[in-house]
Amino acid sequence: MTAGTAEATPTHREAMLEKLAALDAEHAKAVAGGGEKQVARHHARGKLLPRERIELLIDEGSAFLELSPLAGWGSDFTVGASVVTGIGVVEGVECLITANDPTVKGGASNPWTVRKIFRASQIAAENGLPTISLVESGGADLPTQKEIFIPGGRLFRDLTRSSAAKQPTIALVFGNSTAGGAYVPGMSDHVVMVKQQAKVFLGGPPLVKMATGEESDDESLGGAEMHARTSGLADFLAEDELDAIRIGRRIVARLNHRKATPEPGGYAEPDADPEGLLDLVPSDLKEPFDPREVIARICDGVSAGNAAVFDEFKPLYGTSLVTGWARLHGRPIGILANAQGVLFSEEAQKATQFVQLANQTDTPLLFLHNTTGYMVGAQYEQGGIIKHGAMMINAISNSTVPHLTVILGASYGAGNYGMNGRAYDPRFLFTWPSAKSAVMGPAQLAGVLSIVARAAAEGRGQVYDEEQDAGMRAFIEASVEEQSLPHFLSGMLYDDGVIDPRDTRTVLGICLSVIENRPFEGTDRFGVFRP
Predict the structure, then answer these.
(1) Residue 213 CB: number of other CB atoms within 10 A?
(2) What global pTM score does this model have?
(3) How far is CA 30 from the centre of its chain?
(4) Diameter of the chain measured on Cα atoms
(5) Residues 6+ apart with CB under 8 A from 12
(6) pLDDT 10s digit of each residue in the chain, 531 long?
(7) Cα separation of 183 and 169, whole Å?
(8) Under DSSP, is residue 364 helix (H, G, I), strand (E, B) or coil?
(9) What 8-state DSSP symbol labels residue 504?
(10) Beta strand 131-137 with 93-100: parallel, antiparallel or unpaired?
């Protein structure tokens, strides 16, 4: 290690720790829900918070992989979108869990709630997971109903499709479940309601009075005992919240759920210390870093019986893209990781072949992003960068083995597509706090707009205003920088969460286990590769 490297490393760590502190502060906002007053009021009613319910539901000592915790960040809605979603193990079964947060407007669904649950439902469908809904929702947030009502029907469609696909759906109802919220238990396979707490009706007493003139009360209209004894909507009547959770666990225990892939054999912790992941990413993403250092800290070590942690494929060809084979928590994976940022024709062709090989052997793929995109310029255009980039994207688009994506640093331009960004439906996509993603870097985008504006002024015979240009460039750079940051992108649900780099191995291990709930195999059918 050079003296220069030794001096730079602590700077990288300090910058990452600052980003992690900022991330913790944003996550705390999601956990806080509707704030101290609303939380205290909820507890005073003898009720648990959504994460407290989840903690009691999942197996003791097991992890809960929370998804999209920053949904709605930067919007007018509370961070977290009034719902908690994630994957937890219940009676040994990996389940997709959703829990309304009643401290935020009574658990009402806003536009971000709907999008967050859509993503959770997609994960359940792709990976064959049972769904457990912890319900306490006042239905749609009425002031934003125009953004919820039409697309919101998909929530109920997804529940019924899960049932048809033999992916059981379970609803534990802890409080109000009104209007659209009533259809969650209505369309679930198994329903548990808490005595004297659960109230499930399409229209509450005020709406019934307005619509029909009928006088009614909560219990006769939609109380838990009524649904257990009269309507038959409730399959189980729980004495309290703890009893509902106990019953929910027993339902899962009786599902006879079987994973498609047997558990792997032994594995070993990485040979390199994962703590070192904080030292790798430069503050300036224009400065490259070696992704092999990341691989060494997240993949199984040689003491697991591997001859090597990472068997690199084509190490001397297309060197700005690292490809190769490894194991993670005992599971085989193929890895594509950007080394020097730019993707040339050689890297695109190398990636295409590697993706084909992974499909030939039914091996899941892990994409580690740090790319500024495909190379531009006359030499590269003439050399076929468009068709070679298209070849890579073709292979990744049509690959049928599961894909996992982690954005470590830059993910700009078509490089985001070629490296299996959100638009290409990876099973899971996570980002590090150091990640940035946009159509291009802020300075490049501002520069392009400046060049276009300057040419337009010259075409009109006008003198170009340099002072105005400088202001425009500064504004554009600041705007793109803000919109490229992981908090902003995670708030838009363009990832499944921003994670601490040191948790990468654990998060990926959970994801690799989850994808084994459904059988998968590679394909030999790709689109036309342009020669």
Answers:
(1) 7
(2) 0.91
(3) 15
(4) 83
(5) 278, 279, 280, 281, 282, 283
(6) 333 344 445 589 999 999 999 999 999 999 999 999 999 999 999 999 999 999 999 999 999 999 999 999 989 999 999 999 999 999 999 999 999 999 999 898 999 999 999 999 999 999 999 999 999 998 877 778 888 888 888 989 999 999 999 999 999 999 988 877 788 999 999 999 999 999 998 876 766 667 777 777 778 888 999 999 999 999 999 999 999 999 999 999 999 999 988 888 788 899 999 999 999 999 888 888 999 999 999 999 987 666 778 999 999 999 999 999 999 999 999 999 998 889 999 999 999 999 999 999 999 999 999 998 999 899 999 999 999 999 999 999 999 999 999 999 999 889 999 999 999 999 999 999 999 887 766 777 677 777 888 788 778 888 878 888 788 777 777 776 677 688 899 999 999 999 999 999 999 999 999 999 999 999 999 999 988
(7) 12
(8) coil
(9) H
(10) parallel
* DSSP string covering 222-255: HBHHHIIIII---SEEESSHHHHHHHHHHHHHTS
DSSP run (H or E) holding 485:
none
Closest CA to 192 of 155, 241, 144: 241
Instruction: Enter the tokens of residue 512.
Output: 């690799």
